[in-house]
Design a protein that fits this description.
It comes from Agromyces neolithicus. This is BD-FAE-like domain-containing protein. InterPro entries: AB_hydrolase_fold, BD-FAE-like_dom, GDXG_lipolytic_enzyme. Helix content is 33%, strand content 19%. Strands 1, 2, 3, 4, 5, 6, 7, 8, 9 and 10 form a 10-stranded mixed beta sheet that branches. Helix 3 packs across helix 5.
């Protein structure tokens, strides 16, 4: 498999030219010395690459590791989709099928393909779009006929909520822009989201947080999430018997003391996808193992809330204790793929 490193497209270069021109004007007025504080060192999210830690902690061949990518998948790595105010470079990888796949809907498939934004897990504190497991997810989605965009986003402790969801939303907007639509042959009306663990929370939140048509801005037309901690409020965590570990990572992500009451951590509700659910939201597929590290009650309650809000939902509970894409074996891959194909083509 060959990867191509690209630091930025034409849109990025135009933004840099505009920024350079603006800096020159300000310098002429105020003097170079006064501008020193405006220059930030650009930095990438660390750690990058295939050796970054996965949320699938076992060494066994489980879940997505049982997938063998077919020949011909095209991967373009480290495409810049944004730069944040603190100088963080946001990047993603795009995986594309070698040719149209027979299982994909034949509706205009010769001209465009549906896309899926893939969101890695790792407790909002670690992980990478290109670690071995998530690169495999990216190539699996491409093998199903989707243009897959595997994204990196800002991590705790350098950034807390809502930084990660803002980054993921920006990635959808970037993918939907005419420049990327033309570049990758995407249908901007057929973009979905897939995530696992912390990425499952972000995928679900991406689906419910916005309003309006599902083919504009950062809206998506389908969400598939696995093992997401989706109910971050103290009452929900108590009802599920959440572990000290889970409460701790949620507190760090939200910028709250672990176990803080809902009154003392109001952002917990805002970071919980069900808070925002309404009938305009896209259908959601939820996968969860019976006895894994994130309590099953999280997904069950989320499914109930979505249904009550009028959002179509499918909940698949699998045996065992594997987590996130550790449960994404051949059988579950077939279910997720069928769900995405039904909604995206």
């Amino acid at each position: 498999m060959n990867s191509t490193r690209i630091t930025g497209g034409p849109g990025t270069r135009r933004r840099r030219r505009v920024a350079a021109a603006a800096t020159a004007i300000v310098a002429a007025i105020a003097g170079v010395g006064a501008l020193t504080g405006f220059h930030l060192e650009l930095r990438e999210i660390d750690p990058p690459g295939s050796n970054a830690e996965s949320e699938v902690v076992t060494d066994e061949v489980v879940g997505i590791r049982t997938f063998t990518p077919p020949a011909g998948i095209r991967v373009e790595a480290d495409l810049e989709y944004g730069t944040r105010e603190d100088g963080t470079l946001l990047t993603l990888d795009v995986c594309r099928p070698a040719a149209p796949i027979a299982s994909v809907s034949t509706v205009d498939v010769a001209a465009t393909l549906p896309a899926v934004v893939s969101i890695h897990g790792g407790s909002w504190t670690r992980g990478d779009k290109a670690n071995t497991d998530w690169r495999n997810v990216c190539m699996w989605l491409a093998s199903e006929g989707f243009v897959a965009a595997s994204v990196n986003y800002r991590l705790v402790p350098n950034a807390i909520f809502p930084s990660a969801i803002d980054d993921v939303a920006l990635a959808v907007e970037w993918l939907r822009a005419p420049e990327q639509v033309d570049r990758f042959g995407i249908d901007p009306a057929r973009i979905g989201a897939f995530g696992g663990s912390a990425g499952g929370n972000l995928a679900a939140l991406l689906g419910t947080r916005g309003e309006g048509p599902l083919d504009a801005g950062s809206r998506v037309a389908a969400v598939a999430e696995l093992s997401g901690p989706v109910g971050l409020g103290a009452a929900e965590l108590a009802a599920d018997g959440a572990s000290v570990w889970l409460r701790g990572i949620i507190g760090a992500y939200l910028g709250c003391e672990p176990g803080a009451s809902d009154a003392n951590c109001p952002q917990a509700a805002d970071a919980s996808p069900a808070t925002h659910a309404d009938v305009s939201d896209p259908p959601v597929f939820i996968g969860h193992a019976e006895s894994e590290v994130v309590p099953l009650g999280q997904s069950q309650r989320f499914a109930t809330s979505l249904s009550a809000a009028g959002v179509p939902v499918e909940l698949a509970i699998v045996p065992g204790g594997e987590h996130s894409i550790g449960i994404l074996d051949e059988r579950l891959r077939a279910k997720v793929a069928a769900f995405l194909h039904a909604l995206l083509g």
